[in-house]
Every structure is written in C-alpha cells, then in structure tokens.
Amino acid sequence: MKCENREEKISLYIDRQLDWKEEKEFLKHIKQCPECKEALQQAQQLRQMLLEIPMEKVPEGLHQNIMETINKEIEAKTKVSPLKNKKNTAWQKYVAVAASFLILAGASKVYFNYKTDVTENVQIPEMASMKLQQTETDIKQIDEQTNIDQQQISPTITQTRSINAPETAKALPATPNLATGSTEYSEEGEQQQTEQGQQEITQQSETVQQDNTNDDENNDENSEQYSQQGVMMQAMVAGEGTEEEEKKEKEISSQSDEGESIEDAVTNTIRRSVPTNMKSKSLQISLKSKNEQKIAENIEKRVKSLKGEIEAPYTEGSMTVKIPISEYNNVINWLTQQCEVINKNEIIEDLGKQYKEIQQQLDEAKQTEKQAVQKEQPRRAQEARKTQKECEKALEELQKTADFATISITFVE
Amino acid sequence: MEEKKEQPEWLSAAKQNNKRAWEKLVKENESLVYHIAYRMMQNEEEAKDVSQEIFIKVYRNLQKFDEKSTFSTWIYRIAVNTCIDALRKKKGKEVVSWEEQTQHQKENVTDTTETPEEVYLQKEKQLQIIDMIQNLSPEHKAVLLMRDMEDMTYGEIAECLSVSLGTVKSRIARAREQFKKEFLAKKELLVKKPRQINKVNKKGGDTI
C-alpha cells in the first residue's frame, strides 16, 4: 500500500469502516511504514482527547427562556377556537352559497314582521312608532317562546344565548351605513354572499309586490332593496335577526306592504329559526389538585356513566372529555367541588346559522333532484343526491357537536 | 416500509400542545441541545440563542416528525443543522478572543480529575482542544462533534445530515485531517501558556 490517502485510510480504520481485505492490507503497511504508524497513533490520541471532553452545564435560566418561548408558541397556536379544528368540512363547501339563503331568511323575517303591523300607521309617524314597539314586543314573545321550546330540549342553551348578546349589540352601529347601500365589508366571501343575497332579495321583492294590495305611493323599489340589504348584513354580523335590528330597519324604511301569505312567511321563518339556538360549548379548565391521578380516574368514570366520550385520556396532566350538554353544569359544579379551579375559559359557538344553511342546501338539493328526474338528467340527479348525503352527514355532525360539550382539563401543579 | 421507533411517553401529548409534556421534552433534551449548540458555536451567549431557536424549530416541526427515527436522532438533526446555518451566517464576523471564550468555558466544564492542579490543567487542555475546532468549516465541525465527541455511528451521522455514507466517510476523514493540522500548529502552546493565545481572524487578518 502506498501512503496516498493516508489520513482517509487511518480515519476509516479507526472507525472500522474498511473491509477485511483493506484492513489486512492496511495493517501490513503500518508494520512497514513508521510515518503511517505514527499518524495512526496520533489520530487515535486525538479522537480519545475529543471523546474525553465532558459535557457543559446548561446555563441557569435557559430552561425558563426556552419554556417561555414555547408557551408563547403554544398559546398562539391554540388561540383558535377548538370548534374550528373540528372536521366540519363537509358543510363548509356549501356555506358560501347557502349564506345567501340565510340572508334572505333573515331579511324576510324582519321585513314581513315589520309589514304585519306597519301598514295602517304609515301616514302617522308617532303612531307608527308606537305600533312598531308593539310589533317588537310580539316578536320578542315569539322569540321567547322559541327559547322556551329550545330550553325543553336542552336547558343550557339559553344560558349561552345571553353570553352572545353583547356581540349582537356590537353589530348594530354599522346599520345606518349599510342601510344606505354602503358595502364596506372586507371579510372574504361576504361581499360575494351579499351580492348573491341582493339578487335573491330582488326576486323576493318582486314576489311581495305581486301580493301587494296596499302599495304606497312613495314606494321605491331601490330603497327597499337597500334597506333590506342593510338588515341582511346585520343578520350576517349578528348571526340572528334580533328585535333591535328590526327596529332599526323600521326607522330606515317607510314603506309598507301586507299580504295574507306574509303571516305564513313569518311563521315559517320562526319555525325555521328554531335551530338557530343550537350552540356548541367547549371549556378549557385548569385544575389544581394534590391527587390529580385519582381525580382524572373519577372524571373518566363519571364521563362513562353519563355516556360521554373520552376524547384524550389522562396523560401528562391533561385530558379531554365530551359530555352531554345537559350534564354540563352538573359536571362543572362537581369538578369545582373536587378541586380548585385555577382558570376557566368557556367558548360558545353558534351552530344555528350553520345548521340552517346546510338545511337549506339540503332542501335545494332535493328540489334539484326532483327537477333532474323530471327532465331526465341522471347525472344532475346523482350529483344532487350526493349533495343531499353530504348535507345530511354534516347536519348529523353538527347535531352531535351541539349535543355534547367538550371539556379540556389541565392539571396545574 | 420503515417501521415506527419507540418514542418517549410525552411525545403524543407534546404533539397536542400539552404544556406539561413540553416541559418534559425540553427538560430531557435541553442538555443535549445546549451541548451541541455550545460545541458548534463555542460561545455561551450564541449557544443559548441557538438552543432557543432549535426548540422553536422542534415545536414548529413536531407534527411532521414521522417517528421512524428516535426522537433524539430527530432533535439532533435539527440542532446540528440549525447550528450549521447559524455558523454560515456568522461567517466572516468578528471572532471572539480566547480569553473571552474561556472565561465562561472554565466555569462550565465539569470536574474529572483529582487534584486541583490536575483539574486546572485538564480543563485548560480541554478548552484549548475545543478551541482548535473553531477554525474548521461548519460541516467539518459537525461531523467531528458527532463522530469524535458523541461517538455516533456513520449511519446516524448520515441520517442526521441527510447525506450518503460515502460523504460521511470522506467528510470525517477531512475533518480529522483539518483538526490534526490545527492541533499540530498549536501543540506547542497547549496548556503551557493558555492565557496568551489569541485567536486569529479567519480571513487571515489581525490578531484580536
């Protein structure tokens, strides 16, 4: 062997990377070549020296600094509502289109309610105003009735409703601008939805006019559309058509129409709005306990007895469970008695809007299927059936989300 | 198909952003990470910064960890590559003096020998050896660290650096050769007069 590539051969020999033939040849050469022999010894010494260097101590405060950075990252990541992480993708595809129906429904509710009482008061503003208040009270009663119905199904839902109320109030100041036809919406997709909604409403407006028996002289179709649009946009912001919104609408519009079918429309709107009270509830709670293992076991037992679901069993001081929403308050009270509550973060999300949107999409798909069958368009019918199935599945998922509350428990030392 | 390796118990919880699991993850790996960062950066402050950066990368990429390698190999890979990047960025910047460097190092190296004098000499020698690695390229530094300080296998190094075994073999040989040159050049100064050794700027410039 020549002394070429000496260092590489030595390096490979030290690490036993030469095959037996190469190794034999290398050892034979070492015996004859003092330079290579010395180089090998030196290489072995150097490696030994490097291996002997001890590990450094971790500087004080480094752990804390790293944890602070990581916690910030975790918080930033988990800030997103848990519901958004759920697999509700099936219905999301339809939301954009279905939103226009929602807008229409919201507007119709407001519009028709308003029309039921306003007609006779149109010429005397003061009286009209009084009557409007009466209308609001009526609507409120209907709404309350709806709430009562819902309460019977699940008592906790009403509680969540009141939590959402300030959000609705916040949405109101936007009304005057919107009512004058201003479309300052910047959120993605909403502009499109509004445009779609406007088209729908134009159609609706025409229908109403056909039914009209008391057309006002000053009735202007454009302003009517604008005012409806304003309410629609409110409905989108607030999630529901509230009585305040209706009042605003009445202040803006001075037209009145009434028809017998309108009564039905109101009833239909209300009947359809029942699922708007659907809410999902999730809670992030930090608990302090000396015996968290036992508490966790008890929680698991209780969840099982309530026919709930253990989404993530107890590991590393945290667990996630799902319990029937009707048991939510009981479970929270029970937890509070078991250990000290350090932090509690309740997230409530309105599912009613989504439910309604999907439901409408489903109805539409059914209609499309019927038409396609009549027109002998099998492919279109098949697509419609597929849409129906997806919608049904999405409704089922949504119902499940509303029926169960998710509780994420973290034990703090 | 490659099978999944056995992983630490806290891993799945850490993937779900569990803070306590992260506490464990950091605790169990900070020493390794800091060790790599320190050996590569050879400066406490930079090692601390790079350690933080490494853990952020670990956090951001944890979901992508397919568990086909051990967690320590995976974190090692992130650590070494982050250090190589940091060193590349640092390239050409001012090199810190020997004295500045050894001040922190002396305090942090653990005791291994008996008498105080022996401890001192041993520490000095170790620090001088670490310093000799300073002038190696980031890639050579990394393989020397993995092979000769950590005693990792060629396969592990190849996996860590995402290079072939052939590349690892030649890179280790060249790194050792480079280190040997550094060692021989400074051998005379070893231990005898450690305080008077100053680093020479990489660009062949002035003594700091």
Structure write-up:
The complex is a heterodimer of chains A (413) and B (208). Chain A has 413 residues and is an alpha+beta fold. Chain A folds into three domains: 6-47, no CATH class; 90-277, no CATH class; 278-413, no CATH class. Helices cover 68% and strands 11% of the residues of chain A. Chain A has 17 helices and five strands. In chain A, strands 2-3-5-1-4 form a five-stranded mixed sheet. Chain A starts with 5 loop residues before the first helix and ends with a strand. Chain B has 208 residues and is mainly α. Chain B has two domains: 1-93, Rna Polymerase Sigma Factor, Chain: A; 96-199, Winged helix-like DNA-binding domain superfamily/Winged helix DNA-binding domain (Arc Repressor Mutant, subunit A, Orthogonal Bundle), CATH 1.10.10.10. Helix content of chain B is 66%, strand content 0%. Chain B contains nine helices and no strands. Chain B has helices at residues 11-15, 19-41, 44-61, 71-90, 98-108, 116-133, 138-149, 154-161, 165-186. The model of chain B is unreliable at 94-102, 109-113 and 193-208 (pLDDT under 50).
